[in-house]
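Let us work through a complete example step by step.
Step 1: write down the sequence.
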Amino acid sequence: MSGTGKEPEGERRKSGFVALLGRPNVGKSTLLNRILGAKIAIVTPKPQTTRDRIAGIYTEPRGQIIFLDSPGIHHARRALNEYMIRTAERIAAEADVVVHIVDDRPLVEGKEESLVRGVIDRVSVPRLLVVNKADRMGETEADRKRKGLMERGRYARGLILSATKGRGVAEFLDCLFGILPEGPAYYPEDELTDLPMRFIAKEVIREKLFEFLSEELPYSVAVSIEEYKEDPEKNLIRIRAEIYVERESQKGMVIGRGGKVLRNIGTAARQELEKETGERVYLDLFVKVERDWSRKETMLRRLGYA
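Step 2: predict the structure and record it as tokens.
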């Protein structure tokens, strides 16, 4: 999304990388999508949805910000979770500004929030605090949480916003442009992400798995795009994807009685991909059992989680 205002006279454009960090489900992906005005990162009500580094490119007359959405920081129990934590730590290390996002849940010492603060304390770049979901908390409670965390002295500034409603987002961007250094744009102005469509297709399918499956099952599911072919003459994209589960019983749950669940997942994913690409999509989904894939380093590398 490009801005619409005029470039400030006498000022040079700013640019830089901004890491969005926090525990699972604080609204990092929702905030990224709100800023871009487009759906780049998948969003579900379930925690630990984001597994990879997701880059969103925001360009306007003041400059360009590359937002790095990260997996929620949590206690890792499997190799997959360890990969997600390493990804969040790497994102923090490569950023020009680190944004610590919290929400309306209590901050309990010794739990996930302590892990987040540990990552943030290891970086030397400017750090911002964002209290999200102010629409659910109320301004008074949100401000109380902001002031309490600001007293610990970690942050250059603390802000309150609601990513779902858009409140406070403009002030957040103003703050970032005030901190970021002068620099050139890293990407063309009309680009919203550096992710290839092959990756986005995988994420869309994963999002639909979260939407259509029961509470815990999506965490045992992975998606691999085996084929992605564009046919410009027919305005058609052919995609073949494999869905990996860890148990034979899980395979039956993903497929559903008479294949109904898998068809619903495929239809929803196809419709969203057609909306994203503006082309017709032919989507083939296959379900495979790879026992305990989320605990195997070799399988994680095969799926790109390494």
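Step 3: interpret the result. Residues 197-302 form a domain with the GMP Synthetase; Chain A, domain 3 fold (CATH 3.30.300.20).
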